[in-house]
Amino acid sequence: MIPNIFTWATKELSQDAFLCWLAECAKTETKTYNESLHSAAINFIGHCFKLHGLSLESNQFFDIEVRKQYYNIDVLVIVNEKYAIIIEDKLNTSQHSEQLTRYKKLLMEENFNILIPIYYKPFEQSDMNIVKKSGYKHFTRESMIEILDTNINSDLTKMYLSRLKEINDSVFSYKELKKDEWDNNSWIGFFSMLSNEVTDAGWSYVNNPSGGFMGFWWHWYDDANCSQYLQLEESKLCFKIWVEDDKRRSELRQLWCNKIIADTKDSEIKIRKPDRFGTGQYMTVAIYDQDFRVFRNDKIDYEETLKKVKYAMNVLDNVCG
Predict the structure, then answer these.
(1) Selection from 147, 122, 131, 121 nearest residue 46 by Cα
(2) Which residue, 137, 126, 136, is CA-closest to 93?
(3) What is the 3-state secondary structure (H, E, C) of the chain?
(4) Treating both helix axes as pointing N-terminal to C-terminal, what angle do 302-320 and 184-194 enclose, rounded to 10 degrees?
(5) Closest alpha carbon to 116 in 135, 102, 132, 133
(6) Number of neighbouring beta carbons within 10 Å of residue 248
(7) Residue 219 and residue 231: Cα distance in Å, rounded?
(8) Sign of CA dihedral 18, 24, 26, 29
(9) pLDDT by 10s per residue, the chain, length 321
């Protein structure tokens, strides 16, 4: 097997280069020596149009201009001197500051009035609100796999496709791995799926002196004294509070611990006081007594696991309502 260059070219600039190259292959002259590659490139640009409710037939792409790092835009594809496809390309990072809206403003000042802003990230991202509010459409890993998985006569596209499939397999590995075999990508895949079932969810890696963990938080309540919410710390399901006033933290953590344990004392699902209380603004006041995940034949039973997650939500509803 030929080594995959994308095993080594893991930076965003490498991905920028691939996207520029793929877009440039939509030029008519590419069709004369590699029709399958040209077709994939047209489909790539066409999907950007489609995400914004626009349509352009392949024979209508008469001019393609590709610019890299123009006004710091990762990839800019100008189609027919009229359409400006802005591609913000990310790998393990996410958007920052006002960069997304700034790019649009700069191009509008150059009289590119038909803008097609695209956000491309092969890895999962917890919060896409800024992307959506900025008018960008998410070009997903799954869409790119579908475009490239078409017997293209190109070693480079085959290598990039292979890398995307590796990422896909690692993210969905939670469906196949035993409970003790999950890695960060397994948790990311599970959290991404879970975020479709609940509202106001966020997740990321949480660094701490104990070594860190993949965390998922959701189901927030607020009162005059503190905030209450749920958090997964990998296999541990926690009932948490946030208290700003350091003089009231001891009182409030005991209060909420008592409330939650009293509400669940007759439940088959055991909820207990944590081994030790924290003292910071964010404190765990109660936890599930064991791994919240349910496994059957060494594979996660997602529906049964979801029931345990929703039970915790109902508990918080009861004590906060």
Answers:
(1) 147
(2) 126
(3) CCCCHHHCCCCHHHHHHHHHHHHHCCCHHHHCCCHHHHHHHHHHHHHHHHHCCCCCCHHHCCCEEEEEEECCEEEEEEECCCEEEEEEECCCCCCCCCHHHHHHHHHHCCCCCEEEEEEECCCCCCCCHHHHHCCCEEECHHHHHHHHCCCCCCHHHHHHHHHHHHHHHHHHHHHCCCHHHCCHHHHHHHHHHHCCCCCCCEEEEECCCCCCEEEEEEEEEECCCCEEEEEEECCEEEEEEECCCCCCHHHHHHHHHHHHHHHCCCCCCCEECCCCCCCCCEEEEEEECCCCCCEECCEECHHHHHHHHHHHHHHHHHHHC
(4) 60
(5) 135
(6) 13
(7) 9
(8) negative
(9) 788 999 898 888 999 999 999 999 999 999 999 999 999 999 999 999 999 999 887 777 789 999 999 999 999 999 998 899 999 998 766 665 588 899 999 999 888 879 999 999 999 998 888 899 999 999 999 999 999 999 999 999 999 999 999 999 999 999 999 999 999 999 999 999 999 999 889 999 998 877 899 999 999 999 999 999 999 999 999 999 999 999 999 999 999 999 999 999 989 899 999 999 988 999 999 999 999 999 999 999 999 999 999 999 999 999 998
Q: What is the largest CA-CA distance in the chain?
A: 75
